[in-house]
Design a protein that fits this description.
The chain has two domains: 97 residues, no CATH class; 142 residues, no CATH class. It is elongated and about 70 Å long. The N terminus is likely disordered. By secondary structure, it is of the alpha+beta class. Strands 1, 2, 5, 6, 7 and 8 form a six-stranded antiparallel beta sheet that branches. It has a four-stranded mixed beta sheet with strand order 9-11-12-10. It has a two-stranded antiparallel ribbon with strand order 3-4. The longest helix has 30 residues. The protein has nine helices and twelve strands. This is D-alanyl-D-alanine carboxypeptidase.
Length: 280
């Protein structure tokens, strides 16, 4: 009797397993009816060197507290929920067009970048949830590249709020009548060397002043000074270069560009930059 019971239970388990397997396969088939029909790179060389580009994204305000799912390539599995990463932003590689049920929808294939710089999470996010630029929680973000900011005011908000921009904030106060320029800051990020040509700047600016000796104190890598000590050195260097308080206050016809990157990233060691220039 026990033998027959075991056989009956085994057959029942087999039938149940097959039923579940068939059901799972059917669900997988129906849920995976998403086909990528087009793909376009958004992190091109040009994009990586220009501000307000399409590769840096964040969740729109109206979706901040809602479920914003990150899918796998087949669109069969939710990998992450951006609601769980409130202070992160996205770094996109491609923009992909999916076809599903006769309808087309656009998704970004992107990395989730956390405030600590972790970018190991990757997936697809519907573009309708997203907008250009960094997450605006700048009080939680540090050492951002200029490429992800959308305009002058956006960049200024970051400098005012980010814990990493203490010295940059102080520099802007030393030029109270010179408006911050994101474009000049962006050009300075990629053309900071004192011997670099003015050619990249000439399309938008004239009378460029490259304050490289001053900019050397933006970062602590070489000088090993505190923020307060670096600000003092910046003031002293400006005066020795001829930029007294009265002269700096009189530079309202100049805009200022500044870039203060992560001092722990060796490849960025020489790109601290401060530039003044007249817009064309």
């Amino acid at each position: 009797m026990k033998k027959y019971l075991i056989i009956i239970l085994s057959v029942y388990s087999l039938i149940t397993g097959l039923t579940c397997l068939i059901g799972d396969q059917a669900n997988a088939k129906s849920n995976s009816n998403y086909q990528i029909i087009a793909s376009k790179h958004v992190n091109t060389y040009k994009a990586l060197n220009s501000f307000n580009n399409n590769s840096i994204l964040h969740v729109k305000n109206q979706y901040k507290n809602k479920n914003v799912y990150v899918w796998n390539k087949e669109h069969t599995k939710v990998l992450y929920n951006l609601k769980d990463f409130p202070n992160s932003y996205l770094s996109a590689l491609t923009k992909q067009t999916y076809l599903h049920g006769g309808h087309k929808s656009l998704y970004y294939a992107a990395y989730i970048v956390t405030p600590k710089g972790n970018s190991s999470r990757y997936g697809r996010i519907w573009q309708g949830y997203l907008t250009k630029g960094y997450n605006r929680h700048y009080q939680k973000l540090n050492y951002l590249s200029t490429v992800g900011f959308t305009n002058d005011q956006d960049y200024l908000n970051y400098i005012k709020k980010s814990p990493s921009q203490v010295v940059a904030r102080a520099v802007l106060k030393l030029f109270p009548n010179s408006k911050l320029s994101l474009r000049l800051s962006n050009l300075g990020q990629f053309n900071s060397d004192v011997d670099s040509t003015n050619k990249p700047f000439e399309e938008y600016f004239t009378n460029r002043i490259n304050l490289q000796k001053v900019a050397a104190y933006l970062g602590p890598t070489k000088s090993k000074l505190t923020s307060s000590q670096r600000i003092t050195k910046i003031k002293q260097t400006l005066v020795s270069e001829g930029y007294t308080t009265s002269k700096r206050h009189a530079m309202s016809h100049y805009v200022i560009g500044i870039y203060d990157p992560n001092p722990n990233m060796a490849w960025e060691e020489f790109v601290w930059s401060i530039n003044l220039a007249k817009p064309l």
